[in-house]
Amino acid sequence: xxxxxxxxxxxxxxxxxxxxxxxxxxxxxxxxxxxxxxxxxxxxxxxxxxxxxxxxxxxxxxxxxxxxxxxxxxxxxxxxxxxxxxxxxxxxxxxxxxxxxxxxxxxxxxxxxxxxxxxxxxxxxxxxxxxxxxxxxxxxxxxxxxxxxxxxxxxxxxxxxxxxxxxxxxxxxxxxxxxxxxxxxxxxxxxxxxxxxxxxxxxxxxxxxxxxxxxxxxxxxxxxxxxxxxxxxxxxxxxxxxxxxxxxxxxxxxxxxxxxxxxxxxxxxxxxxxxxxxxxxxxxxxxxxxxxx
Length: 293
Fold this sequence. Notes:
With 293 residues, this protein is an alpha/beta fold. It is 31% helix and 15% strand. It is globular, with a radius of gyration of 20 Å.
């Protein structure tokens, strides 16, 4: 099945997942025996965008970026996370050369590069020169043909001040739903200011579903495990007006939100009235006769 050239709302609201190469998806979204190189083309037949997680850990090799571009259709879009060496370790200081190298590495994507995300940790507060460093970094790199979104998690970032800083650079303030499972009925995002001509939304979920206190894995992420139906419906109601107004909206879903990000995307698409049909799960093997029973 291929994704049609998306009309109306489907062309404006781009639904995708945070990364695409999950072994946990084999046998439910991906075929059981799929090769790693075949995952992205398969993914792109069902979704119109993806957030690249691997760029958070290193500047990608030219061969990898060229392969991403070659294996996806013309209407597909990538969002790439700024490497943590720049955002977390350097905190944007003295990282001009690395930043230029990173942005240059993405050029083979051409128009398929939708957004670059600056994801900051909960320890990146506005004090201590961080707000000034963010302002200076955006002054240098924003507006050069690449769109940027900024995610701020520290509670000290006041929305009005953060929005004013980003708005002057035409950069989107990322809306992130990190709410706990038991708080589904609460406001789904702390930051909801509009600061650019597009929206960038991340449905990340409760981080307690990721690791145990000892650091071990909690779940395998291949199915709907904790439905957040109210939150999904609330997000659809919030995003629909932006899409109908003609804005481009990027929505990326993490496995930890409901247990399987492809399934959450399908549920959100249904609420929005966007066609998105996941591949059918393979049928279980037929029961074997017990010859010795």
